[in-house]
Design brief:
This protein is mostly helical. It has helices at residues 2-12, 20-48, 60-63, 68-92, 97-110, 124-145, 150-173, 175-181, 186-190, 192-216, 229-240, 249-279. The protein has one domain. Helices cover 75% and strands 0% of the residues. α2 packs parallel to α5 (97-110) and α4 (68-92) packs antiparallel against α5 (97-110).
Length: 280
């Protein structure tokens, strides 16, 4: 939701005519992909046995609440909804979007699925930044005005950094169990201490980039997103304080709330700046 909101604001920020219906479809595609990825990860980790010992929220396959086949089919259904929406967007803009869509589906399934899941190789953070940051944000701008802009690409950076921070704290919590299961996430490879600092760097990087985007993009009111640093202090303090296991679950929720607040303020600031700049 955050990437689409910021991408839509960046589209409005150009002053060009925007396609509202394509923005709505982009939101549907984004949500369906997120649901599909969650089900796909639940299925793949469950059948691999990675979730047999789990610290975080209960998983459907590993807990036996749902059969592997039903969770897999739910993932395919969500991906199918995203695919239909993607086809509509490609048909109304450019068919090159199909290549982007295929890459998104491959990334969503390949995170923990397939013969060589990249999430088990420590590449998950890179793909989250790329697809849930750059592609989702700048892609929304593109489908709404049929071109990319420097503002959209710049605004995608802090969005991607916060999305990546969510994955990092999730994997930080799971270092002990992932190590035993042979899941070599980036957190496992970096180790506990460096992963904690990576989380802080990602969150701080998102806020540091705001003045650059607001200034260089001539959208000064977008700097209001810096207010999000206030609730971000608490989860960062908990992470650096050495919290482990279940104590990190609230940090995941707090980081998600920071992401939502940041996205709302950032998107609103970009949109309001357009009115201010155009009115001068």
């Amino acid at each position: 939701m955050v990437p689409v909101a910021v991408g839509a604001a960046a589209a409005v920020g150009t002053g060009a005519a925007v396609s509202v219906w394509r923005g709505v479809v982009a939101l549907l595609v984004s949500l369906a992909l997120q649901v599909g990825v969650n089900f796909a990860n639940d299925y793949s980790d469950g059948v691999r046995g990675t979730d047999d010992v789990r610290v975080g929220p209960q998983r459907l396959v590993a807990s036996g609440l749902r059969s592997p086949a039903s969770v897999r089919n739910a993932a395919f259904l969500a991906f199918g909804v995203a695919g239909v929406g993607g086809l509509a967007l490609a048909a109304s803009t450019t068919w090159w979007l199909l290549a982007v869509g295929v890459a998104c589906f491959a990334a969503g399934w390949g995170y923990t699925g397939g013969p060589a899941p990249y999430g088990y190789l420590g590449l998950g953070e890179l793909f989250v930044f790329a697809f849930f940051g750059l592609v989702a944000t700048a892609g929304t701008t593109f489908v709404m005005i049929e071109r990319l802009t420097p503002l959209a690409v710049g605004a995608a950076v802090p969005v991607g950094l916060l999305a990546t921070a969510l994955l990092v704290v999730n994997n930080l919590r799971d270092i002990p169990t992932d190590t035993v299961a042979g899941k070599r996430t980036l957190a496992v490879r970096l180790g506990d201490r460096r992963t904690r600092w990576l989380y802080v760097v990602l969150v701080a990087g998102a806020f540091v980039s705001v003045p650059l985007v607001a200034g260089l993009g001539l959208r000064p009111v977008a700097a209001v997103a810096l207010l999000g640093v206030l609730p971000a202090r608490r989860p960062a303090t908990v992470v650096l304080g050495g919290a482990t296991g279940p104590a990190l679950i609230p940090v995941l929720g707090a980081t998600g709330r920071v992401q939502l607040l940041f996205g709302a303020l950032f998107a609103a600031g970009i949109a309001v700046s357009t009115l201010v700049v155009d009115g001068l």
